[in-house]
Write a structure and sequence with these properties.
Largest sheet: 9 strands, mixed
Strand content: 15-25%
Mean pLDDT: 87
Helix content: 40-55%
Low-confidence stretches: 309-326
Number of strands: 9
Number of helices: 13
Structural class: alpha/beta
Radius of gyration: 19 Å
Distance between the termini: 44 Å
Amino acid sequence: MVQISVILPVYNGASTIADTIDSVLGQTFQELELIIIDDGSTDDTVSVIKTINDDRLHIHQFENAGQGESRNRGAALAQGEYLSFIDADDLWTPEKLESQWQALQTHPEAAVAYSWTDHIDEHNQFFRSGPHLPFSGDVYKKLIISDFVGSGSNVLIRKLAFDEIGGFAPHLTPAEDWDLWVRLAAKYEFVVVPQVQILYRTVTTSSSFNLAKMEASSLQVMERIFAQAPPDLQELAQRCRGHRYKYLTYKALDLTPQRQRAAAAFRFLVLALWYDPSLWRRRVIWKVMLRATAGVVLPQAWLMSLLKQYPQPFDIEALLFHIRFD
């Protein structure tokens, strides 16, 4: 019997997808199916998948439509009562699904279970801590302020709830995760599993990550949030924008330093401080400011040499996410 349907969208993921599949099929919770949506890959992704022999694995091929649409396609094919999604380069710890499934059995009023996240690099090595926050119950206000779930590879959702709110909004990629969490939280409770169970891959050398696209989709999500939020939550708009621009700041600083990215990080940080002036009182902001400024001012060779000697001088994401909410 299938209890959980795991949806894995992939586009040209041949180099990482075998490890991701292993982390799903190796779960202690065995009553699952793994639905892989090949989103028009042009590399050896499908060949790699076909070397894995497991009756729980099902592959479906489509023309390229993007991550949000691929997730929705997988959900439409799902047989399970619960849905979970994982990107083709992320990993789960073996007990992830079992812990989240048990949390939803213990808390029948909740429709979403989530765990804590850490980041790994291109070589599956720990990179830095992700969000480790303990929010459960009515988290609507908190998710408006900031996406503390951390990634689309995290949650376990009751399929009835996912279907009721209409699934992912593909036109909001790559910020469609946050949009979905907010819409779910407007109707349903969340429950946290306070353990690191999602290993989110941060490819620091990526040249494909599009900061402009992430900013544009984030602005669309914020507009959508406050078009639907009740009057008493409209006052959160400034803090929401401040937190999102903080997120964009460290997203830019995660990547291999280039002057253009550092300039983007500096601009994002200025906007974060504009929308949320209280950030000036946080010591971490001065550290982030220093790193962004160094990326703009220092010659590229000096900066690369410095980061080789001190690869992670500031654990930026962990510090930013642990700024407590009111």
